[in-house]
Structure formats: C-alpha cells, structure tokens
Specification:
The complex is a heterodimer. By secondary structure, chain A is α/β, with parallel strands linked by helices. Helix content of chain A is 42%, strand content 21%. Chain B is mainly alpha-helical. The chains are: A alpha/beta, B mainly alpha.
C-alpha cells in the first residue's frame, strides 16, 4: 500500500487501535474517507465495523492513534461536539425519538447550533464559520422574543424543505413510531442530515429490508449524497448491497483492514474471498 | 388521515388571555361564594399545581426519575419562611439556640422571600444535579432520594438556622388566592414556553433516546442539569407558597420529606407523565379528593344505621381509586398529550358535525374533511 497523506482525506484515522481488555476490536486502522466519496466499510459480523463508527463519533476514545476530520484533531471529543463539527450518524437498530412527530425529530437535530459553544470555539480556532450566532437563546426561548420566533419559523421551514426532499413531508405530523420500517430508516437519515453534516455515517441502513427495499434505499443514498453534497461512509455486512453504489470499499476482518479498492478489485482479492466470500459461497 | 383544523396563533393568544381573565374573575368571585375551607382547597390546588408542574418537567418531560423534589421544596420553604418572619418572632421561636446572624435581623416582603426561596432551591438543584445527573434510571432515583433526605436531616439538626425539630411556627398566612394562582400561572407559562421550544424538544429527545440525542449534537448532561435547575427553582417557589399556606414548617417526613415527593409522584403519574395539563389535573384531583374523602373518616349515618368512621380511611380509598385509574388509563389520564386550543376546537367541530349530519348521512370520509 502506498503512503497515505491525511491532507487528502476528509476523515482520517491515523493508526487507530481500539482495545477492550484483551480484545482488539480495531487493529491499527490507517485509512480514511475522501471528500465527496461514497465509501463502503464491509466485513463479516463482528469484524469491528461499528466500533470504527463509535471511535469516529466519540463514543469511544481510541486506545492508540488519532482521528482527524477536516483538518481538526477530533480524538476523544464528546459525541455532541463531533456532531456539531460536521459528522452525523444513523444507528444499526433504529433510534428515533418515538414519542415525537416526524417534524419534531428533524427539528431536534437543529438544536445543537444554539447551544454548542465549546464546539464553536474549536471551529473558530480552525478558522471555520460557526453555525449560528446570537446568545442567550435559553432566555429568548422562554420569553419568546421576536428573534426566537423568527428562528423557530426558520427552523420549521428548513425542516420541511428537508422532509420534502426525502419524501416524508406528507407524514410530518405523524408520530415517528407510527411510520413503516422503510420510512423510519429514511427519517433517521433525514434527521442526521438536519445537523448539516459534511460527513454522514450510515450503520447498516439496509438491515432488515428485503432486496427490493434495499435497492430503493441505495438509490436514495446516492441521491442524497449528490443533492446535499455530503460525503458518505456506509457500513454493511452484506457485500452485495454495497457493490453497486460504493466507489471505494474497505474490507475489515477481525479488526484489520484486509483489502481496499473498487468493488471489482475487492471482490477479486483472494484475501477477501478467503475471509468473506469463500465462507459465504459455501453457505449458499 | 383527516386533516386537523388549526387555529391561528393570534386566535389562540386571545383565547388564552380570555381564559386567564375568566379564571381571574372566578377566583375573585370565590371570595364571596366560597367559605374559608373552600378557598383553602382552591389555594392548595394552586400550590400543588406549582409543585406538580415543576416536578413533571424533570420526571415527565426530560424523563429523569428523580425522587428528590421534596428537598427543593424544603429549601424554598425554609429560606422564605426565615425571610418573612419578623426579628421578634424569630427571637421567640428559637428558644433552644438563637438564630445566627444575619438571618436574625432581616425581614423582607413575601415576594422577595419567595423569589429568594426559588433561587436557593435552584442553587441546591445545581449542587445536587452536578454530581448525580450522570446517573440515569433507578440509580438516579436512589441518589436524589438520598439527597432530599440529607436536606431534611440538615433541617432537623441545624438548630441555629432551622430551629431543628421545633420547626418554624406561626408564619403569617401570606399565601392568598392571588399569590397562589399568580405563581401557578407564571410556572405554567414558563414551563410550557420552555417545553414548546427548541430546548423542550431537546429535553423530550433525551427522554426518548439519550444516545440518539447525543448523536444529534445535544449536550445531554447540560440539558438534564438545566431542566433540573429550572424545576428546582419552581419547587422552591412552591415551597415558599406551601410554607405560608400551612403557616408552619417542620422537618417531619410527612411535611417536606419523602411523603411529599410521593404525593407529587402520584399527581403527575395520575395526570399523565410528560403532560403539563395532566400534572394540573392530577394536582387538582389530589387536592380535592384528599379533602373530600375525609367524609369517610367521620361517622356516616344512612337512615338509622350509623357507620363509624375510621381515621386514615381516606388514604385507603384514595389508593384504591388511584390503582383503578391507572388500570383504566395506563399512561395516566392525559398520557403525554396536552389539552390545547386546537384539540378543543377539533373536538367541538366533530361534536357539531355529529349533530348536523344526522339526516343527510354523507359517505364516510366526507365527514373528516
């Protein structure tokens, strides 16, 4: 493998290792996501894919190595700060705010811009624009000042525009828990997009879907990537799913990167076939 | 799905102002219509309302299981009581040990004392919340319960501040209808305004799924603490009103201890956890029933038979009613819903349609337009 430069990447994991006691869940991960690409992270169950996500989003602090995002060192920052800096995620098992409406679910994702002064300080230090100016939003929210009412209107407008783009505007006043499964997946992606991310991490978005639904969802992901100009990192354990849409694929097995390249390159790599496809072929 | 009709914001504001004026007129009228006993219940409803709404903000809306509300009520009650008593009264009540300076020489009006009580309770809420809000669920419940007991035990033992077990007696009954209902109005307006803002949505998101809320950029700890402090402030306000309604405050568990927390818990669960109107309904029911059920404790005469009253019977009946209510409405009377103008309006429309469409009988689906 040729030498990787972190400047070429939007997100770069520099020799990241994550250890839980004796178990090495992620072993010396040295790769990243390039700006604008749709990268697939695949591997059999238990390969450490979700752990990689949790390291990126700040749920875990890596045992070794650093995580860089858009020129900032984000290693060890708290999850809400990382979200504010521009990384949003979805969850493998859908985690919507079930007692809230579809619209409210999206509105929640806009709240962080009001309160994250710690994260804004990091953005300022790196010369990046802060998301929303103004102070004392808490008091303005209680007193319903004109500034706050305008903000609220603006937030609802943005949220409705977003829902229209993903095709959920008709159900905006439904409870999130009342939506069918496929729509809940879409709403989770919409909710992540509402945080205005540069990078969006999707953790097995096709889990529990039939092949036709999966195909629709993959088209949807490509569409939002183009429409919202976000970079996408996608986890999937079913290799067939990502073959069609990902420009680059990283294969993980037992916490190690065993292969990297285009779909064609990866699927013809003997190491991948041995670790993954071989076993898979035998089953089917 | 039928489209719900919505009223304009302007109409809703007018309706709300109208409701407040009608309510104020009724309260003014109650001075003439009700005897002092009835007025007392009316005041009790408002004080319980303040406490229940502030409690449901933490337990229902933010979804933290706190059992420490009575602690904040106690702080508010003691602080305000110490501020409204005159230096003479203080000298007469503190017979075992004199009250420390400067508390022994200051006296303020009721409004200042109430706000001071609220601020003191908010400071306590911050101090307790900061270490304990990293916990969730049952663990948080135990820790907050412990903290409220600590506050009560301090009140019991800090003889030269709280007068120990003797308590503070002979407070002036400042809590009249206007103070009680005025503070209830402020509490409901502030809590509702906060709940229906971006902050309220963040708190509800934390209630539904704190991991997802954190992933959406919400500082979960900070927001939990914020809710706790706001709730503590209004608990302190309620404590001040409570003390000046009872005119006596002492550190027994039944006055400001764990029993008060449980009563409040009954109110908010009965009304519907997470609903402000539900908390108000729960508070009103609790205040009315716990007084009205007293008739079962006195002798009842039906014809020639006299049933002897049993002391404590009202709580047995109350508990039975509570259990039955919870079996019928498993999420409380209101659930997580609120009574809003929109809902009342739609309900009224449906009610009217039913009456109008009795003869022509349009097809189903048309009715829902």
């Amino acid at each position: 493998m040729s030498e990787l430069k972190k400047e070429d990447f939007l997100l770069f994991l520099d020799h990241v290792t994550m250890q839980f006691g004796g178990l090495v869940a992620v072993d010396d991960f040295h790769n990243g996501v390039k700006p604008g690409e749709l990268l697939g992270l695949i591997g059999p169950n238990g390969a450490g894919k979700t752990t990689v996500f949790n390291v990126i989003t700040g749920i875990y602090t890596p045992t070794k190595g650093r995580v860089y995002f858009a020129g900032m060192d984000i290693t060890g920052l708290r999850p809400h700060i990382i979200t504010h800096l521009g990384i949003a995620r979805t969850f493998q098992n859908i985690r919507l705010f079930h007692n809230m409406t579809v619209l409210e679910n999206v509105l929640v994702s806009q709240h962080h811009a009001l309160t994250n002064s710690d994260a804004d300080r990091i953005l300022k230090k790196h010369g990046m624009p802060v998301k929303r100016t103004g102070r004392f939003w808490f008091w303005k929210a209680i007193l319903k000042s004109p500034g706050y009412i305008n903000l609220e209107k603006h937030m609802v407008k943005e949220a409705e525009e977003l829902l229209e783009k993903v095709g959920l505007l008709d159900v905006k006043n439904e409870k999130a828990s009342a939506l069918p499964y496929g729509m809940q997946r879409k709403l989770e992606i919409a909710r992540a997009l509402a945080t205005e991310p540069k990078l969006i991490l999707l953790d097995e978005p096709a889990a529990g879907m039939n092949p036709q639904e999966t195909e629709e969802l993959m088209e949807f992901i490509v569409r939002i990537r183009d429409e919202f100009k976000v970079t996408v990192l996608l986890i999937e354990h079913d290799m067939k799913v990502v073959m069609g849409i990902c420009e680059r694929i990283i294969v993980l097995d037992y916490g190690k990167i065993i292969s990297e390249g285009t779909a064609a390159e990866v699927s013809s790599d003997p190491k991948v076939i041995e670790a993954y496809l071989g076993e898979w072929e035998n089953v089917s | 799905m039928p489209m719900e009709k919505r009223l304009s914001t302007k109409t809703k504001i007018y309706l709300t102002i109208g409701l407040i004026i009608v309510g104020a007129l009724l309260l003014w009228g109650s001075n003439y219509w009700l005897e002092s006993y009835g007025q007392r219940i009316l005041k009790l409803i408002a004080v319980y309302g303040v406490l229940a709404v502030s409690y449901t903000f933490v337990n229902g809306i933010t979804g933290m299981f706190s059992l420490g509300h009575a602690g904040f009520v106690a702080v508010g009650a003691y602080v305000s009581a110490l501020l409204t008593m005159s230096p003479m009264e203080k000298e007469m009540s503190f017979i075992l040990e004199p009250l420390i300076w400067p508390l022994n020489s200051i006296q303020t009006d009721f409004l200042t004392a109430t706000i001071a009580g609220g601020i003191a309770a908010a400071i306590f809420a911050f101090a307790i919340g900061y270490p304990s809000l990293r916990l969730t669920g049952d663990y948080l419940a135990i820790v907050t319960l412990g903290f409220s007991e600590i506050i009560r035990l301090i009140a019991l033992n800090a003889q030269n501040i709280t007068n120990g077990a003797l308590g503070l007696k002979g407070l002036t009954e400042y809590t009249n209808i206007w103070w009680a209902w005025g503070w209830l109005l402020i509490t409901v307006v502030v809590i509702a305004s906060l709940t229906y803002s971006s902050y309220g949505r963040a708190l509800k998101a934390i209630r539904d799924d704190d991991i997802a809320a954190e992933a959406m950029g919400i500082n979960v700890f900070k927001h939990r603490l914020l809710a706790f402090v706001v709730s503590g402030f209004f608990a302190g306000i309620g404590g001040s009103l409570y003390a000046h309604l009872l005119t006596t405050i002492d550190p027994r568990p039944t006055t400001i201890g764990v029993f008060l927390t449980f009563y409040l818990l009954i109110m908010i669960v009965l009304g519907g956890l997470g609903s402000i109107t539900g908390a108000l309904i729960g508070a009103a029911l609790f205040a009315i029933l716990s007084e009205w059920l007293r008739i079962f404790e006195s002798n009842i005469t039906i014809g020639s038979i006299t049933i002897k009253g049993i002391p404590g019977m009202r709580m047995v009946i109350f508990s039975t009613l509570f259990v039955v209510t919870m079996l019928v409405w498993r999420r409380g009377i209101m659930g997580m819903e609120e009574i809003t103008w929109d809902k009342l309006y739609n309900w009224l429309l449906r009610f009217r349609k039913k009456g109008q469409t009795a003869e022509p009988e349009p097809k189903r689906g048309d009715v829902d337009e």
